[in-house]
Amino acid sequence: GEAGVRIPPERYLRQVRDICSRRDVLLCLDEIQTGLGRTGKMFCADHEGVQPDVFILGKALSGGLYPVSAVTSGQDVLGLFEPGTHGSTYGGNPLACAVAMAALDVIEEENLPARAAELGEYFLGRVKTLRHPKLKEVRGRGLLIALEFAEPSARALCEILARHGLLAKDTHETTVRLAPPLVISRGEIDEALVALKAALAEL
Question: Which of 39, 86, 106, 139 would suit a FRET pair with 154, their CA atoms being 20 to 30 Å apart?
Fold first, then answer.
């Protein structure tokens, strides 16, 4: 996400999991941006079959409706907290919890991870065909894609894209992140590609 959609080398997470297990260290994975279907699996760690001790979740957990985040784990970890040992002003908010449960139902019922995998493959493949002298690399997984430039161009491209009706985020001076809704259609992806091509021509 914020690092610029950096995909670790194959087996990286498995090796981290092994090290943590051997040294009795909790493996905590921040899947606020990558979790809940975004990368084509329910969790990005699922691509390597890795089970962390703790997941940190947010964003998609809210269904775009109400701010909610969560720290999830098993009883062996969360059971260490006894009532009153950890406080939170808004923790356990009933409305936030109801929204999160509804969002999880939709993610599962509409099989959004599989949808992200299918449409992400299409979107990434098409973005990789785009050409620009400053464009150095295109990378991604599911519906999380980054365009890496050889020199600071990210903010300028995002501003041009906005004028073409496409919102994108510059995560560094040289990186633009594309993270469309998991309910995006193929037609909308094609519209985004038209905007991308036009914006690159103006850059």
Answer: 39
